[in-house]
């Protein structure tokens, strides 16, 4: 057994850890006998020693821009005697920043670590890292470690190209007289020893919104970097507004790599605001649904640009004139009020163009056919340009009514699908203006929906009801779209413009009111006519009675009379009461009376026109005066009583006649 700790490293390395012992065995006899044997003990090596660097610190120097170059070696020893236990590996644990590698390799007596620059990296003296502090770790297979510090200093080499100033922009006003100073290029070089000069490589010009080779060299570049305008050339903003100058800076002292760097100098030409705005054509005309246009509705859009820059390029739009041109041949533009106005978008788009929206001040007449000619002015400070745009109207006659056997809610719910089917069938844009209800007055009172829409093509033409019906009734369209529309309830297309039921109701109410007013007027007129006729008859009767009362009682002549009448047997006995009735003045107030009554009351129908002249009245009075001269008696004789008296005389002289004269019972009163 061992009387102490065995240490492999205490054994001479050349013995390779082998201990040989001679062991003798002796007995206790007399004489004692013995024998011996050699015992070989192999002491195995254990990894119980840590690697030790030969130097406590290392410092190396390396040139910049050398990729994969060797920097230096670090060496360490391990006291363990076996190769397995004293094998040492090296690695950089910190400070490398990805620029260095360390490779382990044997050096005869032990192991060393070769530090080199990463093949993919070139050290740069001009960067912020001019030196590195590395920590290198030596590790055996038993993970026993030792560390050492390595300093790496980077040496400068003139290998960096000069720097061209980035984003270099210069400006010059157009029409500047040469050789005007434009600017100067100031390059730089991070190397400690350098000398820079400048050369012009090429120029490009931005003309008419495109880049290309300059037709004229407007600028020159001196070796010192000064840029000037070239002689014999005039800078014109209207031709080109920018010049891109490509130049390069050269380092005369460069040792390695490129000695020059190219860069861009952007030269802006300052505009002097000598160009009016220019309209950008968008489309030849705009299509307007007159019925859909209300106040502040957008009807068209205009675009304009200006070659000027800055404040000079800001554009505002104004409507300066509006005319209407009818659709009939030979119509001339008719000036109208400014029913349109322009709103300008204050910010230009990505291309620098300004946009204006033409809007309506009021609703448009849906029955007016033709187009509006709107003159729009694009203004830029003191300069302006006018442009006339055409607004082609789609009048109310092109409104198409489609009847759906479905409630309004269902039609609105499926409106997008219905429009899609109509667009696919007609190949026109469908503008729905109204979805309303039409109540069908039948036993079921089923709700029917009317969808009113316009079918407009981009060229301004539109489809009417007949055209839409013809298209939907074609076999191909019907199979593809008609079946779909029928599923949503389409039952027919109105041949005329549909007026909503509520609009008809208002018309019916107005017609009823007018009819009632007419009836009232007729009744009142008839009543007035009847009252007037009755009044005239009474007035005529009163006039006749007054004339009869004026005749004195004595002027009445006795004579035979006709019983029951006012006529005497002698012609002309009573001219006032015996005048023939003038049929032209008979107003027919006695239509209900019998012919006998008419005859008996003939003397009452003294139908003199109230408007007769005094000449006729004088004639009648003359007849009375002549008859009064022939009358022998001055007393008044009642005509009926006279007739009875004559009858009594015929019976005999002895007959007694009793006559009662009572003017209040005069037959004239009948």
TrEMBL record:
KW Transmembrane (keyword) present: yes
Positions with biased composition (Polar residues): 654-670
Compartment(s): Membrane
Protein name, entry field: Cadherin domain-containing protein
PANTHER family in UniProt: CADHERIN-RELATED FAMILY MEMBER 2, FAT ATYPICAL CADHERIN-RELATED
Region (Disordered): 645-670
BP GO terms, sorted: anatomical structure morphogenesis; homophilic cell adhesion via plasma membrane adhesion molecules
One Gene Ontology cellular component: plasma membrane
Coarse class of the protein's main subcellular location: membrane
């Amino acid at each position: 057994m061992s009387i102490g700790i065995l240490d492999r490293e205490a054994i001479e390395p050349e013995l390779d850890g082998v201990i040989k012992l001679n062991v003798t065995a002796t007995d206790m006899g007399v004489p004692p006998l013995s024998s011996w044997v050699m015992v070989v003990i192999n002491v195995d090596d254990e990894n119980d020693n840590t690697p030790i660097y030969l130097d406590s610190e290392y410092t190396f120097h390396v040139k910049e821009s050398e990729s994969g170059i060797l920097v230096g070696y670090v060496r360490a020893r391990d006291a363990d005697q076996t190769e397995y236990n004293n094998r040492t590996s090296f690695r950089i644990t910190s400070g490398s920043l990805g620029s260095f590698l360390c490779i382990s390799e044997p050096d005869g007596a032990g192991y060393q670590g070769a530090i080199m620059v990463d093949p993919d990296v070139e050290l740069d003296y001009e960067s912020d890292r001019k030196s590195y502090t590395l920590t290198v770790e030596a590790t055996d297979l038993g993970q026993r470690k030792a560390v050492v510090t390595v300093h790496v200093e980077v040496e400068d080499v003139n290998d960096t190209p000069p720097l061209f100033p980035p984003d270099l922009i210069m400006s010059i006003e157009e029409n500047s007289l040469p050789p005007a100073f434009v600017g100067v290029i100031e390059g730089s070089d991070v190397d400690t020893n350098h000398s820079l000069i400048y050369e012009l490589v090429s120029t490009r010009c931005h003309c008419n919104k495109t880049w290309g080779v300059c037709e004229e060299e407007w600028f020159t570049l001196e070796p010192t970097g000064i840029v000037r305008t070239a002689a014999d050339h005039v800078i014109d903003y209207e031709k080109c507004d920018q010049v891109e100058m490509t130049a390069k800076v050269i380092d005369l002292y460069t040792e390695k790599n490129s000695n020059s760097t190219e860069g861009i100098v952007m030269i802006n030409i300052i505009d002097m605001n000598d160009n009016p705005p220019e309209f950008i054509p968008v489309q030849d005309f705009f299509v307007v649904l007159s019925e859909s246009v209300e106040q502040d509705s957008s009807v068209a859009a205009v675009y304009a640009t200006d070659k000027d820059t800055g404040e000079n390029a800001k554009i505002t739009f104004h409507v300066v004139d509006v005319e209407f041109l009818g659709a009939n041949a030979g119509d001339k533009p008719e000036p109208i009020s400014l029913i349109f106005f322009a709103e300008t978008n204050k910010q230009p788009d990505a291309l620098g163009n300004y946009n204006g929206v033409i809007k309506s001040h009021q609703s448009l007449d849906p029955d007016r056919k033709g187009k509006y000619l709107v003159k729009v002015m694009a203004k830029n400070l003191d300069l302006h340009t006018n442009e006339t745009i055409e607004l082609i109207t789609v009048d109310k006659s092109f409104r198409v009514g489609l009847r759906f056997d479905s409630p309004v809610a269902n039609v609105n719910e499926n409106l997008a699908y219905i429009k899609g089917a109509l667009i696919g069938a007609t190949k026109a844009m469908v503008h729905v203006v109204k979805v309303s209800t039409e109540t069908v007055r039948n036993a079921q009172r089923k709700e029917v929906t009317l969808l009113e829409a316009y079918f407009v093509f981009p060229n301004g033409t539109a489809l009417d009801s007949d055209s839409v019906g013809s298209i939907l009734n074609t076999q191909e369209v019907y199979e593809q779209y008609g079946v779909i529309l029928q599923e949503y309830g389409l039952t027919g297309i109105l041949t005329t413009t549909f007026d909503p039921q509520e609009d008809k109701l208002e018309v019916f109410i107005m017609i009823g009111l007018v009819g009632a007013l007419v009836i009232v007027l007729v009744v009142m007129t008839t009543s007035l006519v009847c009252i007037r006729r009755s009044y005239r008859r009474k007035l005529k009767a009163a006039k006749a009675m007054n004339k009869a009362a004026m005749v004195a009682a004595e002027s009445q002549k006795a004579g035979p009379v006709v019983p029951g009448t006012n006529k005497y047997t002698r012609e002309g006995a009573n001219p006032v009461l015996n005048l023939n009735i003038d049929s032209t003045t008979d107003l027919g107030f006695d239509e209900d009376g019998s012919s006998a009554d008419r005859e008996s009351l003939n003397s009452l129908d003294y139908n003199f026109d109230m408007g007769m002249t005094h000449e006729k009245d004088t004639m009648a009075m003359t007849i009375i005066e002549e008859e009064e001269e022939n009358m022998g008696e001055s007393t008044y004789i009642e005509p009926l009583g006279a007739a009875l008296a004559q009858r009594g005389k015929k019976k005999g002289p002895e007959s007694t006649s009793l006559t009662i004269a009572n003017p209040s019972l005069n037959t004239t009163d009948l």
